[in-house]
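Quality-control log, excerpt.
Job 1 of 2 completed; input and output follow.
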Amino acid sequence: MSRVRFERRQQEPLPIVWIDDEECYFTSKTQIESLKPAAPVLMVRPDERIGISRRQWRLICDFLDDSSGFPPVSLDEESTARDHAAHVGL
Protein backbone atom coordinates (compact mmCIF):
# COMPACT_ATOMS: atom_id res chain seq x y z
CA MET A 1 0.00 0.00 0.00
CA SER A 2 2.82 2.41 0.84
CA ARG A 3 4.50 1.71 -2.50
CA VAL A 4 1.28 2.46 -4.38
CA ARG A 5 1.05 5.78 -2.51
CA PHE A 6 4.71 6.51 -3.30
CA GLU A 7 4.26 5.82 -7.02
CA ARG A 8 1.19 8.06 -7.14
CA ARG A 9 3.45 10.99 -6.17
CA GLN A 10 5.99 10.28 -8.92
CA GLN A 11 6.14 12.08 -12.24
CA GLU A 12 6.64 8.74 -14.03
CA PRO A 13 5.06 6.07 -11.80
CA LEU A 14 6.37 2.55 -12.19
CA PRO A 15 4.33 -0.67 -12.27
CA ILE A 16 4.46 -2.81 -9.15
CA VAL A 17 4.80 -6.59 -8.81
CA TRP A 18 3.80 -7.93 -5.39
CA ILE A 19 4.56 -11.61 -4.76
CA ASP A 20 3.25 -13.04 -1.50
CA ASP A 21 1.74 -16.38 -0.56
CA GLU A 22 0.13 -14.95 2.59
CA GLU A 23 -1.17 -11.49 1.69
CA CYS A 24 -2.23 -11.56 -1.97
CA TYR A 25 -5.97 -12.09 -1.66
CA PHE A 26 -9.10 -10.52 -3.12
CA THR A 27 -9.51 -8.28 -0.05
CA SER A 28 -5.97 -6.91 -0.53
CA LYS A 29 -6.72 -6.36 -4.21
CA THR A 30 -9.83 -4.37 -3.30
CA GLN A 31 -7.83 -2.23 -0.86
CA ILE A 32 -5.20 -1.45 -3.49
CA GLU A 33 -7.87 -0.65 -6.07
CA SER A 34 -9.36 1.88 -3.66
CA LEU A 35 -6.04 3.78 -3.76
CA LYS A 36 -6.38 4.22 -7.54
CA PRO A 37 -2.81 3.24 -8.48
CA ALA A 38 -1.05 5.50 -10.97
CA ALA A 39 0.55 2.48 -12.66
CA PRO A 40 -0.62 -1.15 -12.89
CA VAL A 41 -0.11 -3.49 -9.94
CA LEU A 42 0.33 -7.24 -10.42
CA MET A 43 -0.34 -9.31 -7.32
CA VAL A 44 0.99 -12.87 -7.49
CA ARG A 45 0.02 -15.50 -4.94
CA PRO A 46 2.20 -18.57 -5.49
CA ASP A 47 1.67 -22.00 -4.04
CA GLU A 48 3.66 -21.77 -0.80
CA ARG A 49 4.88 -25.34 -1.28
CA ILE A 50 6.57 -24.72 -4.65
CA GLY A 51 6.95 -20.96 -5.02
CA ILE A 52 6.34 -19.12 -8.26
CA SER A 53 5.21 -21.45 -11.04
CA ARG A 54 6.53 -21.25 -14.58
CA ARG A 55 3.16 -19.88 -15.67
CA GLN A 56 3.37 -17.14 -13.05
CA TRP A 57 6.96 -16.35 -14.03
CA ARG A 58 5.85 -15.86 -17.66
CA LEU A 59 3.03 -13.60 -16.45
CA ILE A 60 5.47 -11.51 -14.40
CA CYS A 61 7.85 -11.22 -17.37
CA ASP A 62 4.99 -10.19 -19.67
CA PHE A 63 3.85 -7.61 -17.13
CA LEU A 64 7.36 -6.17 -16.79
CA ASP A 65 7.82 -6.07 -20.57
CA ASP A 66 4.60 -4.12 -21.10
CA SER A 67 2.11 -3.50 -18.32
CA SER A 68 -0.11 -1.25 -20.45
CA GLY A 69 -2.51 -4.09 -21.35
CA PHE A 70 -3.14 -5.02 -17.72
CA PRO A 71 -5.96 -3.66 -15.54
CA PRO A 72 -5.03 -1.23 -12.73
CA VAL A 73 -4.78 -4.16 -10.26
CA SER A 74 -4.44 -7.82 -11.26
CA LEU A 75 -4.49 -10.77 -8.87
CA ASP A 76 -3.06 -14.09 -9.99
CA GLU A 77 -3.47 -17.02 -7.62
CA GLU A 78 -1.82 -20.32 -8.45
CA SER A 79 -4.56 -22.93 -8.74
CA THR A 80 -2.67 -25.33 -6.45
CA ALA A 81 -2.29 -22.75 -3.64
CA ARG A 82 -3.82 -23.82 -0.36
CA ASP A 83 -5.30 -21.53 2.27
CA HIS A 84 -3.40 -21.59 5.52
CA ALA A 85 -3.88 -19.81 8.82
CA ALA A 86 -0.32 -18.64 9.45
CA HIS A 87 3.15 -18.51 8.00
CA VAL A 88 4.37 -21.96 7.04
CA GLY A 89 7.95 -21.05 6.08
CA LEU A 90 11.00 -22.31 7.87
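Job 2 of 2 completed; input and output follow.
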Amino acid sequence: MNKLWTRDFKIITIGSIISMLGNSVAGFAIGLLVLDYTQSTLLFSLFMVVYNLPKIIAPLFAGPYMDRFSRKKVIYTLDFFSSAVFFLMFLLLRADWFNYPVFLAIVLLIGTIDGVYSVAYESFYPNLVSKGNFSKAYSISSMIYPLAAFMVPVASLIYTSTGSAAPLFAFNAVTFFVAALFETRIGYTEKHMTDNQSEDKGFSMVTYKADFKEGLAYMKAEKGLQVITAYFFISMFAGGGIHILHLPFFKNNPELFANIPINVVTLYTIISSFGVLGRLTGGFIHYKYKYPVDKKFLIALTVYTTISILEAFNLYFPVPLMMLSFFIIGIMGVTSFNIRISATQSYVPDVKRGRFNGTFQMIVSAGNILGQLLAGFLGEIYHERHVIMLFMAVNLLAVIFIMYNKREHVKKIYNRRV
Protein backbone atom coordinates (compact mmCIF):
# COMPACT_ATOMS: atom_id res chain seq x y z
CA MET A 1 0.00 0.00 0.00
CA ASN A 2 1.20 3.52 -0.84
CA LYS A 3 2.30 5.85 1.92
CA LEU A 4 -0.56 7.92 3.37
CA TRP A 5 1.34 10.56 5.32
CA THR A 6 2.84 12.50 2.43
CA ARG A 7 3.97 16.11 2.93
CA ASP A 8 0.82 17.57 1.35
CA PHE A 9 -1.47 15.26 3.34
CA LYS A 10 0.22 16.35 6.56
CA ILE A 11 -0.23 20.04 5.64
CA ILE A 12 -3.94 19.74 4.78
CA THR A 13 -4.55 17.77 7.98
CA ILE A 14 -2.77 20.31 10.20
CA GLY A 15 -4.57 23.19 8.49
CA SER A 16 -7.94 21.48 8.97
CA ILE A 17 -7.28 20.87 12.67
CA ILE A 18 -6.29 24.49 13.28
CA SER A 19 -9.26 26.02 11.47
CA MET A 20 -11.70 23.53 13.00
CA LEU A 21 -10.52 24.43 16.50
CA GLY A 22 -11.71 27.99 15.99
CA ASN A 23 -14.79 27.09 13.99
CA SER A 24 -16.19 24.72 16.61
CA VAL A 25 -15.75 27.36 19.28
CA ALA A 26 -17.33 30.16 17.25
CA GLY A 27 -20.22 27.98 16.03
CA PHE A 28 -21.21 27.15 19.59
CA ALA A 29 -20.67 30.70 20.83
CA ILE A 30 -22.76 32.47 18.22
CA GLY A 31 -25.66 30.05 18.69
CA LEU A 32 -25.68 30.57 22.43
CA LEU A 33 -25.26 34.32 21.97
CA VAL A 34 -28.34 34.56 19.77
CA LEU A 35 -30.41 32.31 22.02
CA ASP A 36 -29.54 34.43 25.07
CA TYR A 37 -30.34 37.72 23.32
CA THR A 38 -33.62 36.63 21.72
CA GLN A 39 -34.89 34.00 24.20
CA SER A 40 -36.70 32.44 21.23
CA THR A 41 -36.31 28.95 19.79
CA LEU A 42 -37.81 30.19 16.50
CA LEU A 43 -35.37 33.12 16.14
CA PHE A 44 -32.51 30.82 17.13
CA SER A 45 -33.51 28.29 14.45
CA LEU A 46 -34.01 31.13 11.92
CA PHE A 47 -30.43 32.22 12.60
CA MET A 48 -29.18 28.71 11.86
CA VAL A 49 -31.38 28.52 8.75
CA VAL A 50 -29.91 31.77 7.39
CA TYR A 51 -26.41 30.39 7.99
CA ASN A 52 -27.27 27.25 6.02
CA LEU A 53 -29.38 28.94 3.32
CA PRO A 54 -26.45 29.85 1.02
CA LYS A 55 -25.36 26.22 1.15
CA ILE A 56 -28.27 25.47 -1.19
CA ILE A 57 -27.24 27.95 -3.87
CA ALA A 58 -23.46 28.40 -3.47
CA PRO A 59 -22.36 24.74 -3.88
CA LEU A 60 -24.44 24.26 -7.02
CA PHE A 61 -22.85 27.22 -8.77
CA ALA A 62 -19.41 26.60 -7.28
CA GLY A 63 -19.21 23.00 -8.60
CA PRO A 64 -18.48 23.77 -12.29
CA TYR A 65 -15.96 26.44 -11.22
CA MET A 66 -14.11 23.93 -9.01
CA ASP A 67 -13.76 21.56 -11.96
CA ARG A 68 -11.94 24.19 -14.05
CA PHE A 69 -9.91 26.29 -11.63
CA SER A 70 -7.57 25.79 -8.69
CA ARG A 71 -9.37 24.31 -5.70
CA LYS A 72 -6.30 24.90 -3.54
CA LYS A 73 -6.36 28.66 -4.18
CA VAL A 74 -10.06 28.82 -3.35
CA ILE A 75 -9.42 27.02 -0.05
CA TYR A 76 -6.72 29.30 1.31
CA THR A 77 -8.29 32.50 -0.08
CA LEU A 78 -11.58 31.76 1.67
CA ASP A 79 -9.75 30.97 4.92
CA PHE A 80 -7.98 34.35 4.80
CA PHE A 81 -11.32 36.05 4.14
CA SER A 82 -13.01 34.11 6.97
CA SER A 83 -10.30 35.31 9.32
CA ALA A 84 -11.17 38.91 8.46
CA VAL A 85 -14.91 38.34 8.95
CA PHE A 86 -14.44 36.76 12.38
CA PHE A 87 -12.11 39.57 13.39
CA LEU A 88 -14.90 42.03 12.51
CA MET A 89 -17.31 40.08 14.72
CA PHE A 90 -14.75 40.23 17.52
CA LEU A 91 -14.58 44.02 17.22
CA LEU A 92 -18.38 44.38 17.27
CA LEU A 93 -18.82 42.16 20.32
CA ARG A 94 -15.88 43.75 22.09
CA ALA A 95 -17.78 47.03 21.80
CA ASP A 96 -20.77 45.20 23.36
CA TRP A 97 -22.79 45.79 20.21
CA PHE A 98 -25.34 43.25 19.01
CA ASN A 99 -27.95 43.78 16.33
CA TYR A 100 -29.94 40.76 15.20
CA PRO A 101 -30.42 41.77 11.51
CA VAL A 102 -26.74 42.79 11.15
CA PHE A 103 -25.48 39.54 12.65
CA LEU A 104 -27.98 37.72 10.46
CA ALA A 105 -26.33 39.33 7.40
CA ILE A 106 -22.85 38.40 8.64
CA VAL A 107 -23.90 34.81 9.20
CA LEU A 108 -25.38 34.77 5.67
CA LEU A 109 -21.94 35.76 4.37
CA ILE A 110 -20.23 33.08 6.49
CA GLY A 111 -22.68 30.48 5.20
CA THR A 112 -21.87 31.46 1.62
CA ILE A 113 -18.15 31.11 2.31
CA ASP A 114 -18.68 27.72 3.92
CA GLY A 115 -20.87 26.53 1.04
CA VAL A 116 -18.18 27.28 -1.55
CA TYR A 117 -15.35 26.10 0.72
CA SER A 118 -16.94 22.70 1.34
CA VAL A 119 -17.12 21.97 -2.40
CA ALA A 120 -13.51 23.07 -2.94
CA TYR A 121 -12.20 21.11 0.05
CA GLU A 122 -14.12 17.87 -0.62
CA SER A 123 -13.09 17.97 -4.29
CA PHE A 124 -9.42 18.71 -3.51
CA TYR A 125 -8.84 16.46 -0.47
CA PRO A 126 -9.11 13.07 -2.31
CA ASN A 127 -6.22 14.11 -4.58
CA LEU A 128 -3.90 14.22 -1.57
CA VAL A 129 -4.83 10.65 -0.57
CA SER A 130 -2.68 7.86 -1.98
CA LYS A 131 -4.31 4.88 -3.68
CA GLY A 132 -5.78 2.31 -1.30
CA ASN A 133 -5.88 4.73 1.65
CA PHE A 134 -9.25 6.42 1.21
CA SER A 135 -10.95 4.78 4.18
CA LYS A 136 -7.97 5.46 6.45
CA ALA A 137 -7.68 9.09 5.25
CA TYR A 138 -11.34 9.82 5.88
CA SER A 139 -11.12 8.21 9.31
CA ILE A 140 -8.47 10.84 10.10
CA SER A 141 -10.69 13.54 8.63
CA SER A 142 -13.60 12.34 10.76
CA MET A 143 -11.48 12.65 13.92
CA ILE A 144 -10.62 16.32 13.32
CA TYR A 145 -14.04 17.66 14.27
CA PRO A 146 -14.30 15.59 17.47
CA LEU A 147 -10.84 16.74 18.56
CA ALA A 148 -11.80 20.35 17.89
CA ALA A 149 -15.19 19.97 19.56
CA PHE A 150 -13.50 19.31 22.90
CA MET A 151 -12.95 23.07 22.85
CA VAL A 152 -16.71 23.64 23.20
CA PRO A 153 -16.81 23.07 26.99
CA VAL A 154 -13.87 25.50 27.25
CA ALA A 155 -15.81 27.99 25.15
CA SER A 156 -18.84 27.55 27.41
CA LEU A 157 -16.75 28.33 30.50
CA ILE A 158 -15.18 31.40 28.86
CA TYR A 159 -18.57 32.66 27.69
CA THR A 160 -20.13 32.11 31.12
CA SER A 161 -17.27 33.73 33.04
CA THR A 162 -16.75 36.74 30.73
CA GLY A 163 -20.33 37.19 29.54
CA SER A 164 -19.03 37.85 26.03
CA ALA A 165 -18.27 35.82 22.92
CA ALA A 166 -15.68 38.37 21.74
CA PRO A 167 -12.59 36.41 22.89
CA LEU A 168 -13.90 33.32 21.13
CA PHE A 169 -14.22 35.11 17.79
CA ALA A 170 -10.74 36.57 18.18
CA PHE A 171 -9.45 33.03 18.64
CA ASN A 172 -11.36 31.96 15.54
CA ALA A 173 -9.87 34.78 13.44
CA VAL A 174 -6.35 33.70 14.41
CA THR A 175 -6.95 30.01 13.69
CA PHE A 176 -8.33 30.65 10.20
CA PHE A 177 -5.39 32.92 9.37
CA VAL A 178 -2.84 30.32 10.50
CA ALA A 179 -4.69 27.54 8.64
CA ALA A 180 -4.60 29.58 5.42
CA LEU A 181 -0.85 30.07 5.80
CA PHE A 182 -0.39 26.30 6.03
CA GLU A 183 -2.64 25.67 3.00
CA THR A 184 -0.57 27.98 0.78
CA ARG A 185 2.34 25.54 1.24
CA ILE A 186 0.57 22.56 -0.38
CA GLY A 187 2.61 21.57 -3.43
CA TYR A 188 0.20 19.24 -5.26
CA THR A 189 -0.21 20.06 -8.98
CA GLU A 190 -3.90 20.02 -9.84
CA LYS A 191 -4.58 18.01 -13.01
CA HIS A 192 -8.33 18.52 -13.37
CA MET A 193 -7.81 22.01 -14.85
CA THR A 194 -5.85 20.61 -17.80
CA ASP A 195 -8.24 17.70 -18.21
CA ASN A 196 -11.17 20.09 -18.46
CA GLN A 197 -9.18 22.31 -20.89
CA SER A 198 -9.69 25.48 -18.87
CA GLU A 199 -6.42 26.98 -20.08
CA ASP A 200 -7.25 26.42 -23.77
CA LYS A 201 -10.91 27.40 -23.86
CA GLY A 202 -11.15 29.83 -21.01
CA PHE A 203 -14.19 30.03 -18.78
CA SER A 204 -17.28 31.83 -20.04
CA MET A 205 -20.98 31.61 -19.26
CA VAL A 206 -21.33 29.27 -22.23
CA THR A 207 -18.74 26.81 -20.90
CA TYR A 208 -20.17 27.22 -17.39
CA LYS A 209 -23.66 26.22 -18.58
CA ALA A 210 -22.21 23.30 -20.54
CA ASP A 211 -20.29 22.08 -17.47
CA PHE A 212 -23.38 22.55 -15.31
CA LYS A 213 -25.52 20.45 -17.66
CA GLU A 214 -22.81 17.81 -17.94
CA GLY A 215 -22.73 17.49 -14.16
CA LEU A 216 -26.51 17.02 -14.00
CA ALA A 217 -26.35 14.45 -16.82
CA TYR A 218 -23.70 12.51 -14.90
CA MET A 219 -25.91 12.43 -11.79
CA LYS A 220 -28.91 11.25 -13.84
CA ALA A 221 -26.89 8.37 -15.22
CA GLU A 222 -25.66 7.22 -11.78
CA LYS A 223 -28.57 5.53 -9.97
CA GLY A 224 -26.50 4.69 -6.91
CA LEU A 225 -25.42 8.31 -6.40
CA GLN A 226 -29.05 9.39 -6.81
CA VAL A 227 -30.20 7.01 -4.08
CA ILE A 228 -27.42 8.06 -1.69
CA THR A 229 -28.19 11.75 -2.29
CA ALA A 230 -31.94 11.22 -1.81
CA TYR A 231 -31.43 9.38 1.47
CA PHE A 232 -29.02 11.94 2.86
CA PHE A 233 -31.46 14.72 1.95
CA ILE A 234 -33.97 13.09 4.34
CA SER A 235 -31.27 12.23 6.88
CA MET A 236 -30.01 15.82 6.98
CA PHE A 237 -33.62 17.05 7.19
CA ALA A 238 -34.19 14.90 10.27
CA GLY A 239 -30.75 15.51 11.76
CA GLY A 240 -30.92 19.27 11.27
CA GLY A 241 -34.31 19.31 12.95
CA ILE A 242 -33.40 17.34 16.04
CA HIS A 243 -30.00 18.94 16.64
CA ILE A 244 -31.47 22.44 16.60
CA LEU A 245 -33.74 21.36 19.48
CA HIS A 246 -31.10 19.86 21.81
CA LEU A 247 -29.85 23.12 23.37
CA PRO A 248 -33.38 24.63 23.69
CA PHE A 249 -34.51 21.38 25.34
CA PHE A 250 -31.94 21.76 28.12
CA LYS A 251 -32.55 25.51 28.54
CA ASN A 252 -36.36 25.18 28.52
CA ASN A 253 -36.59 22.18 30.88
CA PRO A 254 -34.20 22.84 33.78
CA GLU A 255 -36.60 21.11 36.20
CA LEU A 256 -35.74 17.77 34.58
CA PHE A 257 -32.16 18.17 35.81
CA ALA A 258 -32.86 19.85 39.16
CA ASN A 259 -31.05 17.08 41.06
CA ILE A 260 -27.81 17.75 39.15
CA PRO A 261 -25.82 20.68 40.61
CA ILE A 262 -24.61 21.94 37.21
CA ASN A 263 -25.79 24.76 34.96
CA VAL A 264 -28.02 23.21 32.24
CA VAL A 265 -25.92 24.68 29.41
CA THR A 266 -22.76 23.21 30.93
CA LEU A 267 -24.59 19.91 31.43
CA TYR A 268 -25.57 19.94 27.76
CA THR A 269 -21.97 20.51 26.66
CA ILE A 270 -20.83 17.63 28.89
CA ILE A 271 -23.47 15.24 27.53
CA SER A 272 -22.84 16.29 23.92
CA SER A 273 -19.11 15.82 24.46
CA PHE A 274 -19.80 12.09 24.80
CA GLY A 275 -21.06 12.22 21.21
CA VAL A 276 -17.81 13.91 20.28
CA LEU A 277 -15.86 11.22 22.14
CA GLY A 278 -17.84 8.61 20.22
CA ARG A 279 -16.91 10.21 16.91
CA LEU A 280 -13.27 10.25 17.95
CA THR A 281 -13.46 6.58 18.94
CA GLY A 282 -15.20 5.71 15.68
CA GLY A 283 -12.53 7.50 13.66
CA PHE A 284 -9.81 5.57 15.50
CA ILE A 285 -11.60 2.27 14.80
CA HIS A 286 -11.78 3.09 11.08
CA TYR A 287 -8.12 4.06 11.03
CA LYS A 288 -7.00 0.79 12.62
CA TYR A 289 -9.46 -1.64 11.05
CA LYS A 290 -11.17 -2.11 7.70
CA TYR A 291 -14.71 -3.41 7.45
CA PRO A 292 -15.28 -6.36 5.09
CA VAL A 293 -15.80 -4.93 1.61
CA ASP A 294 -18.90 -7.02 0.86
CA LYS A 295 -20.51 -6.05 4.20
CA LYS A 296 -20.15 -2.27 4.08
CA PHE A 297 -23.66 -1.60 2.80
CA LEU A 298 -25.18 -3.88 5.45
CA ILE A 299 -23.12 -2.13 8.15
CA ALA A 300 -24.25 1.27 6.86
CA LEU A 301 -27.91 0.20 6.83
CA THR A 302 -27.63 -1.08 10.41
CA VAL A 303 -26.03 2.22 11.45
CA TYR A 304 -28.79 4.32 9.83
CA THR A 305 -31.49 2.28 11.58
CA THR A 306 -29.84 2.27 15.01
CA ILE A 307 -29.18 6.02 14.95
CA SER A 308 -32.84 6.68 14.10
CA ILE A 309 -34.03 4.70 17.11
CA LEU A 310 -31.50 6.09 19.60
CA GLU A 311 -32.00 9.71 18.50
CA ALA A 312 -35.77 9.31 18.86
CA PHE A 313 -35.62 8.32 22.52
CA ASN A 314 -32.32 9.43 24.08
CA LEU A 315 -33.71 12.64 25.62
CA TYR A 316 -36.05 10.42 27.67
CA PHE A 317 -33.09 8.56 29.20
CA PRO A 318 -31.55 9.36 32.58
CA VAL A 319 -28.33 11.35 32.21
CA PRO A 320 -25.89 8.38 32.37
CA LEU A 321 -27.80 6.49 29.65
CA MET A 322 -28.14 9.72 27.67
CA MET A 323 -24.35 10.04 27.71
CA LEU A 324 -23.98 6.42 26.55
CA SER A 325 -26.52 6.99 23.77
CA PHE A 326 -24.68 10.09 22.54
CA PHE A 327 -21.43 8.09 22.61
CA ILE A 328 -22.88 5.23 20.52
CA ILE A 329 -24.45 7.68 18.06
CA GLY A 330 -21.05 9.35 17.72
CA ILE A 331 -19.34 6.08 16.79
CA MET A 332 -22.08 5.21 14.33
CA GLY A 333 -22.14 8.71 12.85
CA VAL A 334 -18.47 8.40 11.92
CA THR A 335 -19.12 4.95 10.47
CA SER A 336 -21.87 6.40 8.28
CA PHE A 337 -19.66 9.31 7.22
CA ASN A 338 -16.62 7.17 6.45
CA ILE A 339 -18.43 4.56 4.38
CA ARG A 340 -20.38 7.16 2.39
CA ILE A 341 -17.69 9.72 1.68
CA SER A 342 -14.77 7.36 1.01
CA ALA A 343 -16.98 5.37 -1.39
CA THR A 344 -18.45 8.33 -3.29
CA GLN A 345 -15.26 10.43 -3.50
CA SER A 346 -13.24 7.49 -4.84
CA TYR A 347 -16.06 6.54 -7.24
CA VAL A 348 -16.61 9.95 -8.88
CA PRO A 349 -13.92 10.95 -11.45
CA ASP A 350 -11.75 13.92 -10.43
CA VAL A 351 -12.88 15.98 -13.45
CA LYS A 352 -16.52 15.70 -12.31
CA ARG A 353 -16.00 15.70 -8.54
CA GLY A 354 -16.62 19.43 -8.07
CA ARG A 355 -19.99 19.25 -9.82
CA PHE A 356 -21.06 16.14 -7.94
CA ASN A 357 -20.03 17.61 -4.60
CA GLY A 358 -21.75 20.90 -5.45
CA THR A 359 -25.01 19.14 -6.30
CA PHE A 360 -24.82 16.84 -3.29
CA GLN A 361 -24.04 19.70 -0.89
CA MET A 362 -26.90 21.77 -2.32
CA ILE A 363 -29.45 19.00 -1.88
CA VAL A 364 -28.46 17.88 1.61
CA SER A 365 -28.13 21.49 2.78
CA ALA A 366 -31.66 22.14 1.56
CA GLY A 367 -32.81 19.19 3.67
CA ASN A 368 -30.89 20.48 6.68
CA ILE A 369 -32.45 23.95 6.38
CA LEU A 370 -35.98 22.64 5.94
CA GLY A 371 -35.50 20.45 9.01
CA GLN A 372 -34.16 23.31 11.13
CA LEU A 373 -36.93 25.68 10.09
CA LEU A 374 -39.73 23.17 10.65
CA ALA A 375 -38.27 21.97 13.95
CA GLY A 376 -37.90 25.58 15.18
CA PHE A 377 -41.54 26.24 14.33
CA LEU A 378 -42.82 23.02 15.91
CA GLY A 379 -40.54 23.55 18.93
CA GLU A 380 -42.48 26.73 19.75
CA ILE A 381 -45.72 24.71 19.93
CA TYR A 382 -44.85 21.19 21.01
CA HIS A 383 -42.39 19.65 23.45
CA GLU A 384 -38.93 19.13 21.96
CA ARG A 385 -39.00 15.39 22.71
CA HIS A 386 -42.17 14.88 20.67
CA VAL A 387 -40.85 16.81 17.69
CA ILE A 388 -37.61 14.79 17.73
CA MET A 389 -39.53 11.50 17.72
CA LEU A 390 -41.50 12.67 14.68
CA PHE A 391 -38.34 13.61 12.77
CA MET A 392 -36.65 10.32 13.53
CA ALA A 393 -39.74 8.41 12.38
CA VAL A 394 -39.36 10.17 9.01
CA ASN A 395 -35.68 9.20 8.92
CA LEU A 396 -36.47 5.56 9.65
CA LEU A 397 -38.99 5.49 6.80
CA ALA A 398 -36.27 6.83 4.47
CA VAL A 399 -33.93 4.03 5.57
CA ILE A 400 -36.56 1.45 4.63
CA PHE A 401 -38.09 2.93 1.47
CA ILE A 402 -35.02 4.59 -0.07
CA MET A 403 -31.84 2.88 1.08
CA TYR A 404 -33.12 -0.66 1.58
CA ASN A 405 -35.47 -0.72 -1.42
CA LYS A 406 -32.74 0.57 -3.77
CA ARG A 407 -29.92 -1.37 -2.13
CA GLU A 408 -28.59 -2.99 -5.31
CA HIS A 409 -27.65 0.41 -6.77
CA VAL A 410 -25.94 1.55 -3.57
CA LYS A 411 -24.02 -1.69 -3.04
CA LYS A 412 -22.15 -1.05 -6.31
CA ILE A 413 -20.69 2.10 -4.73
CA TYR A 414 -20.42 1.14 -1.05
CA ASN A 415 -19.12 -2.43 -1.43
CA ARG A 416 -15.84 -1.49 -3.09
CA ARG A 417 -12.24 -1.61 -1.90
CA VAL A 418 -11.11 1.98 -1.35
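Post-run check on job 2. The chain has a mean pLDDT of 86.
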